Every structure is written in structure tokens, then in C-alpha cells.
Amino acid sequence: MHTLLLKDNEADIKKAGEILRNGGLVGIPTETVYGLAADALNPSAVAAIFEAKGRPMDNPLIVHIADIGDIERFSLVSEFPEKARALAEKFWSGPLTMIMPKGKAIPDEVSAGLDTVAIRFPEHKVAQAIIRAAKTPLAAPSANLSGSPSPTTAAHVMNDLNGRIEAVVDGGECRVGLESTVITLAAEKPRLLRPGGITVAQLESVIGEIDIDDAVLHRLKDGEKAASPGMKYKHYAPKARVILVKGEDFCEFVNGRADEETAALCYDEDKERLRVKTFTLGKNGESETQAHELFNSLREIDESGGIRLVYARCPKPEGVGLAVYNRLIRAAGFEVIDLEKL
Ligand code: AMP
Ligand code: MG
């Protein structure tokens, strides 16, 4: 299959809309990461997403809308809880996904057999225009091959999916750079399933205290069931082995182990002090820059070739830093060295 590289002009957005209406797959820009979109109400189009990505069938997809009214217009939920309405009012359009009891229009392929559905109203104007052009809600996971870092540019999408999907729309670099915050409102008490650009403090300022799912910070124990199936998989990983290093003496530690095949994923300030190849996340403490840079840096590690081991700085798990930590610890397959405990 030839993959069209489309631009974000009116004619190309219309073309993307037609491909989607006809059951095809299109990589689309959003403010979080690039999504791999299909008509959410067409089961065979949705099934093609899993095929193209090599995604496990038990990992449900997020349904993207271009207007809060789409939820009721397309019967996407069986209940739109009061707290979900309040969060939608405050944070949509934006990088927040809400899980609600699923409506009759949602095919099992989207919800992976669960009785809930994940919904998001992206803020990116091109994403909104494509949804409107398709005249249907779009199911879209991140547009990467399953397991690899999520794409934050159209070139990343092409690297992974060229020849496997109908088209990609180039809408530039993604603003946030990490996937959306996911919260469930289908449980007794609202619970954070995946941290992202909208922080715990922001959510709590609207609906009061929320729970944080165990899988956000910890590896699931054998046999433990994931509230958000995506959290159980190794994820976001470059081909090189990544080890997360906690503690202030990061540079000394890495220099003590320096060789040709070792690299550091570090802060700007560390670069001069390190005797290994470096990939930076931005400045220490600047969580939003780190979120923006992380996936691009993980991809650059693979592209630079010959690197087998990466020591990564451990960010503070607070605010947007919680999302950076959550992705990095999965990229590291939960392998952590705590320098204070050596
Ligand atoms: P992705 O779009 O690839 O970033 O993945 C979407 C994330 O949302 C995954 O972690 C899914 O497991 C999660 N998700 C989607 N639908 C649901 C749902 N109904 N219940 C819980 N988690 C969900
Ligand atoms: Mg993904």
C-alpha cells in the first residue's frame, strides 16, 4: 500500500476525511502525540488499526470527538456522569481522556470487550477539522508500532507505518509530546489511570480528591488485572536497554561506567559533565519541556546506532513530571538504580 503524506490545508483535510469515511486509516496530528485514526463506528476499520500497529486486541482505543455534543449525538455513552461534564467543561478541548459507561454505538473492537469507553476532545485544530471532515467520531491510539515510543512528528509516523496505512496528515510537532491524561468516571470514585498533560492537581481542583491507580507508578504483580489494559504492556521502549537512575550523583555514576555503547538521557546541565554520548530532556525541573522531548529523544537513541545501554535521569514524579516518570519507567521495563541505596 502507498501511504499518502498529506498537508494540513483544506483540500488535504477533506481527502483525509474521505479516506476515513471509506474505512481507511489516517495518521493525524493532535496536541498530545500523532494518532492512528479510523471511523470509530465501523468495526472493520477499527480492526485494521490493531493489524497495522500490531496492537494486542485486548487494549481498547480512545474515541475522538470534535464537539461535546458528539457524545450524545452519536450515542457514545450510556451515562454522562456529572463529574465528567464538569471536567469536560473545564479541560475540553484538551489532553484529557475520560472513561464512561459505553453507549450502544460503540463496537466491541473499540472497547476491547469492556463495558466502558474512553473519550477525548482534542484541542489541535487540524485534528478537529479531520474529525468534522470524516463526519464521525474517530478511534485513535498512538500512531506507532505497538511497543515503540509514541510519534510526535509526521516523520515518526512514516518511520513506523509507511506502507501499512492509507495516509498521514502533517500538522507539525505535537505541543504536549506525551499521551493524554486518562481518568475513569465509571468507577465508584474517580481514578487516574494514566498521567499526562492535565495534572492530578488540576483534576482535583474541579472534582475533589481522586484515586491514583497502582499501575501509574508500579509494575503490576503477576496475575493482577489492569484497570487500563495499556498499562500492563512494556511500552515506549527504544531498542537499547534503559535503566532509570535515581539520585543526585548521576554524572559520577554514569562516568564510572562510560564506554562506547553506553549513553545518558539527561538534563541540559549534565551534558558537559558526562563522558558518554548524551540525549537531553531539557532543563532540570522543567517538566513540560521534558514531556515534549522524551519520545523524540528515545527515537534518536535508536537512530544514532550502536548504543546498547542508556542511563536515564529520574524525574520528580509531580505535576507533569508524573507523566514523564510514568513513561520512562515503562521504557526502562521498571529497571531502576537508586544511588542512595547503593
Ligand atoms: P493509546 O491511545 O495507545 O495511547 O492508548 C489508550 C490508553 O487508554 C490505553 O492505556 C488503554 O488501555 C486506555 N483505555 C482505552 N479505553 C479504555 C477503557 N474503556 N477503560 C480503561 N482504559 C482504557
Ligand atoms: Mg500508545
What is the string of SSEs from the N terminus onward?
EHEEHEHHEHEHEHEEEHEEHEEHEHE
Query: What form results from the Cα inertia axes?
Result: globular
What spatial order of strands do you see in the largest sheet? Answer: 1-8-2-3-7-4-6-5-9-10-11
The major sheet is characterized as: 11 strands, mixed
Q: What is the count of DSSP helices, taking H or I runs of 4+ residues? A: 11
Radius of gyration: 20 Å
Q: Which short descriptors sum up this protein?
A:
single chain, 342 residues, alpha/beta, eleven-stranded mixed beta sheet, five-stranded parallel beta sheet, 11 helices, 16 strands, 30% helix, binds adenosine monophosphate, binds magnesium ion
Question: How does this structure look, described?
Answer:
By secondary structure, the protein is an alpha/beta fold. Helices cover 30% and strands 18% of the residues. The protein has eleven helices and 16 strands. Strand 2 and strand 3 form a beta hairpin. Helix 1 crosses helix 6. The longest helix is centred in the last third of the chain and has 18 residues. The N and C termini lie far apart (52 Å). Magnesium ion binds next to loops.
